[in-house]
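Researcher: Next sequence.
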Amino acid sequence: MRLLCLSAQVSFSSLLLSRTCGCRKPSVQTSVCPCVCVLVCVSLCVCVCVFCSVAGGGGRLSPLTPPLFAARVCGGACVEVDSDTEAVVGDGFQLGCIYCKMRGEVRAKASVDWYYRSSDEREKGDIYRYQNQRGEIMDPRFEDRLAWNGSKGTDDLQDGSIYILNVTYNDTGTYTCNFTRTLTYNYYEVQANNTKTVQLNVVPRLTRGMASILSEVMMYVSIVGLQFWLLVEMIYCYRKIAAAGEEALRESEAEYLAIASESKDNCAASVPVAE
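Model: Next structure:
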């Protein structure tokens, strides 16, 4: 919320600057209005701030998050990213498992199996299976606490993430995601498997990394510096426009006096002298 307020403040300042400088009617003396550069820099700064805030904040997803939200760069693109490994007790947590298909034109059908092994267990056990667009909880310890948060409405799965509701300290352990994909070609089928492991640690409160803290500090420093720069640009534009207006006023006054003097001379020459 604070980021949105700061972004709105920057946008308002840039709009005020554009109206003050009169970018729509640049003066003859300036070939390029500096406000255009200011507006472009403001837009870039806001985009960078939003990106740094999202990347540094961890960006945990809720069960309502659309599939492949964290993995999509643009429509149809898929990027494999690692899952978070630190959950807060009492909150929800997403176990990420993304297995991208290299050739989008090939028909495929996939299923996902999740396994769990606690710190005091030797063997892992099935906890969740998703196949034919249906999910099934296999472990009673996770009954009514697991929800599918991967690809929906298709058998061609690329995101096999699940969401844990109401995380407890007993959820600490090793989670294994097993992707099984069958690729269908014209005359044959190929089966591909992929396994991803998530070592989950449950903590009382979320600890932020140094990179996240530094990115937020740099974001606020950049916004403050940008506000100061906008103020300097506004003063510069105002003084330049005021000076141009005074110069135009002096030129107009001189031209008016010259015309008046010429008219007076013409009138004196046209009046006949009495003999």
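Model: The CA atoms of residues 130 and 230 lie 54 Å apart. Residues 1-12, 15-32, 47-75 have pLDDT under 50 and may be disordered.
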